[in-house]
Amino acid sequence: MQEHFHLNTPLLESVSMSKLLGTTVYMKMENSQPSGSFKIRGIGHLCQQLTGRSRGIVCASGGNAGMAAAYVARKMGVPATIVVPSSSPQLVVRRLQDEGATVRIVGKVWDDANAEALRLSESEGLTFVPPFDHPFLWEGHASMIAEVSASLGSGVKPGAILLSVGGGGLLCGVIQGMKDVGWMDVPIIAMETVGADCLNAAIKAGKVVTLDGITSEAKCLGAKTVCQRAFEYSRSGEPKIISELVTDQQALTAIDTFLDEERVLVEMACGAALAAVYSGLIRRLQEQGRLPTPLRPLLVIVCGGSSINMGELSALKEKLHI
Ligand code: PLV
């Protein structure tokens, strides 16, 4: 079996973001992974650990976990069934089918699709692949921080790490990687959109809560409940997690700016993190003393995503009046 499915992605310096923030901004380009997002790291690792002689895998996904699972299944020669909610754009369904997966559309949001995936794993004897809540996923995602640390060179630490939160798997994986390289004193800025804000809601409530629904267009951030481990990290204070929200408009504007400046198209889930730079949020956190001034280099996890193309971008702009 091949060693792993993910690639060592480029760590690029963004001239335009560095100019905006007055510090060097590094972008970890997870959009360039096979299957289009960081998800391949965790899902590749998890499938290697769990799948063995599996009859097939089943994964419920907003899109990208499914893309990664379908890719890995194809490489491993096992069938993949991906369950997506009806909120996933048609282009995701097509891309999943192009990967060779059987696609089922069930329910309105990811949580509905997940219930169906669990049912299918039992009734059909398929290996269940969770998109964000599993230690093997976090172990796999952690490799991204090991790569960044190796690229930056020994002794160089970022001043903060900026990422998006859906169900919290990326957050847990990044923290795992930070533990491994001794970066636990580096704060994380954990971004969600209003209406897909399960981590922020849990922090406010002081306990894990389940959102009534997902009203954001960032469907790949649309888990109604954050994973327990992510919430525990947010309480532990190490690393410090700054949980912030942006609007869909801000996330969409960020995608547009990123396309212009870096010539890379990413989806709304990723736009949430980018918006922290472009909307002035990082600067505001510095003014409030929640991030240091001057700030050592900022590391942005460009998590990527396949739920976007030029048509989808135009449709989102129309819908959100931008
Ligand atoms: N997307 C998951 C969960 O959706 C999925 O099924 O694909 N950035 C991108 C591009 C993503 O696709 C996701 C998660 C995230 C960020 C957030 O990662 P998480 O869920 O590990 O916090 C409901």
TrEMBL record:
| Reactions listed under catalytic activity | L-serine = pyruvate + NH4(+)
By its UniProt entry, which Pfam families does this protein fall under?
PALP
Q: Which domain of life is it from?
A: Eukaryota
Indicate whether Lyase appears among the record's keywords: yes
Which Gene Ontology molecular function entries are recorded, alphabetically?
A: L-serine ammonia-lyase activity; pyridoxal phosphate binding; threonine deaminase activity
Q: What keywords is this UniProt entry annotated with?
A: Lyase, Pyridoxal phosphate
Q: Mention one GO biological process in which this protein takes part, according to its record.
A: isoleucine biosynthetic process
User: Known EC number(s)?
Assistant: 4.3.1.17
Work out whether the entry's keyword set contains Phosphoprotein. no
Cite the Tryptophan synthase beta chain-like PALP domain residue spans from the record. 6-304
Cofactors required: pyridoxal 5'-phosphate
EC top class, as a word: lyase
Its protein name is L-serine ammonia-lyase
